[in-house]
Amino acid sequence: MSIFEKMFDKIGDNDEAVEAAAEAVEAAAPKAEASVSSEQLVRISERCLAAAALSMYCAACDGNVSIEEYMEMDIHIGKIKGKVKLPETVEKELTAIGNNHNISWEEVTAYLDKLSPDVLIEMSDDVADIVVASDGVNEDEQKVVERFANYVKSRV
Fold first, then answer.
1. 53 with 106: CB under 8 angstroms?
2. DSSP string covering 97-151
3. What is the pLDDT along the chain (156 residues), one digit of tens a residue?
């Protein structure tokens, strides 16, 4: 179950926006090969976990995670994951991250540290999408963007 699907109960499954968002999540997922090497699965898992942690940190920094932010998170994770079935432990960890609205920067960097600088640079667009998803960029969200940018600079 995706992070966004957890929100269906809160907004009703007859809502056209919910259906459109669910279709967008499905369309965003690339058509990946069913079988991947164990090394590829580890990289995909690490990137999914890092994206989820960073996204939740961005979304929750202002004290509220909006439906739009949940949708963006699911789209980004879906793009990374594609059609690959992640190990159950990774899925459980993704769920735990999705429920942790108080995720700390230290927890986020523990995931980010596993990624290459090139992948971190690619994640900059994901950060921007999350912080503008609901109602523009507020002061707390701007601080998160700057913190992530400084982190990326320190890794390059």
1. no
2. HHH-TT--HHHHHHHHTTS-HHHHHHTHHHHHHHHHTTT---HHHHHHHHHHHHH
3. 554 444 444 444 445 655 655 555 555 544 444 578 999 999 999 999 999 999 999 889 888 888 888 888 888 888 888 888 999 999 999 999 999 999 999 999 999 999 999 999 988 888 888 878 777 778 888 898 899 999 999 998
